[in-house]
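re: ur question from yesterday

yeah so i grabbed the chain u mentioned. its 234 aa long if i counted rite. heres the sequnce exactly as i have it in my notes:
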Amino acid sequence: MEAQYTCALLGSKEGNDVRVLVVEDEQLLADAVATGLRREAMAVDVVYDGAAALERVGVNDYDVVVLDRDLPLVHGDDVCRRIIELGMPTRVLMLTASGDVSDRVEGLELGADDYLPKPFAFTELTARVRALGRRTTVALPPVLERAGIKLDPNRREVFREGKEVQLAPKEFAVLEVLMRSEGTVVSAEQLLEKAWDENTDPFTNVVRVTVMTLRRKLGEPPVIVTVPGSGYRI
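ran it thru and got these structure tokens back, copy pasting raw so excuse formatting
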């Protein structure tokens, strides 16, 4: 089964800036899904049991939790209930090996926002994660435009003054966060939270380096402004 999912990852091209927690006890499958979502410029954390999932959602803000229903230590149903009880804006995409309609209905009645039976096409999983991620934020046009920059999250394309700009996944994710902020200042910590996963050292200079590279690729005149002691804005 894991090989089937891994092969499906190779044709993936679209992107979006969403922070995701993947909770799946089949480690090869979980890691393959996480790798694929990261290629879509998403920040992804991975755990392999329900207890670890509860720990993560208690300390991190996730847009979407991709949650296997049959988990060790704490059942996926209980993880879903806890997320609902905490009143989080997090959206839950529940996975199961069972394709029974009754199981899907039961999962949705628990509070899951969407339900996907295994085996699934990775392109469908990505589309569902992206759609759920949009529900956690204020609705914005599908194509973002600001300061002469046009960014299409679905096609993962960026243009400046009509000229296409080729960006690496993290550069694209940082630019999207800044554009979605509509001129407000975004701190380095917020960029780390949205564009990288929890294993990133909070004291690293990766944000500064990525912004520097992004500025260079976007060209002159500079559009990303550094606000000393606060962060960045466009």
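noticed a couple things. Residues 122-135 form the longest helix (14 residues). also Residues 144-233 form a domain with the Arc Repressor Mutant, subunit A fold (CATH 1.10.10.10).
anyway ttyl
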